[in-house]
Amino acid sequence: MPSFLRKLSVCLFLIMPFSGGVSGQVCDSMTVSVAVMESPFDISPRYVDTIIVYTDEHYAGYLFPQVREIPQVVKKYALMIGVEPEKLQNDKIYQFIDEWFGTPYRYGGSTKKGIDCSALTRELFSCVADIELPRSSVQMYSCDMVEPFKEKDYSKLREGDLLFFRSRGRINHVAVYLCAGKFLSANRTGGVQISSLDSPYWKRRYYSAGRIKETTSENSSTAMK
Predict the structure, then answer these.
(1) 134 Ramachandran zone, left/alpha/beta (phi>0; psi -120 to 50)
(2) d(CA 145, CA 132)
(3) Please, are residues 117 and 174 in contact by the beta-carbon 8 Å criterion?
């Protein structure tokens, strides 16, 4: 296939998320694997193979979704959370959790020897999405890259949303939402663990959710799915 046709086919594919028929004599074809993302932060996208056929009359594209291979670490935390593995979309989040799970809580800490809630959240976003959040929970809540929203309906929360908690009238805890009312945080009792918003303790302290805006930097146009 001539190079200019190859380039043309790729460009045409990018603007045709549909299947089309083919007529005329088939001149050439090529297969391209492309990620389909629900949001810019969807770092566990659904990949599709596309066969682009160039004919003497026009082109057509065919999308073939690939079956997602679910890692064992995702299955492990799906069991812990109590959902089907398919519900957990961002594999890297659960790889991160597995590395940090059980780390002791330490106020002001940011290492495996001890870490606090905001440092854990900041580390997760840095490792998983290359997003640099501010250091404290209050700063995260008020920073430009986070869009706070009051949401009590868990079904509207997305994997990777921030959760803010307060006591004595001020925000003093931040966590990362996972699925089915469960979230990751570093707690004074138990260290890095998965907790539930249905717990009376957390339900009483829950203040707001927050979502990373889609555009954060030149290298990271992202938003937590």
Answers:
(1) beta
(2) 10
(3) yes
Q: What share of the chain is helix, strand, coil (3-state, %, to 5)?
A: 30, 30, 40
pLDDT of residue 66: 66
Q: Global pTM?
A: 0.71
Sequential DSSP letters for 42-56: -SSPEEEEEEEEEES
pLDDT tens column, 101-123: 999 999 999 999 999 999 999 99
Spatial distance between the Cα atoms of 86 and 161, rounded to a whole number of angstroms? 18
Cα separation of 68 and 152, whole Å?
A: 31
**Mean pLDDT to the nearest integer, 162-172:** 96
Domains of the chain are 3-65 (no CATH), 72-212 (3.90.1720.10)
CA distances from 182 to 36, 112, 162, 178, 193 (A): 26, 22, 12, 6, 10
Residue that has been written with the tokens 């009359």 in this structure: 57
- Alpha-carbon span 46 to 33, nearest angstrom: 10
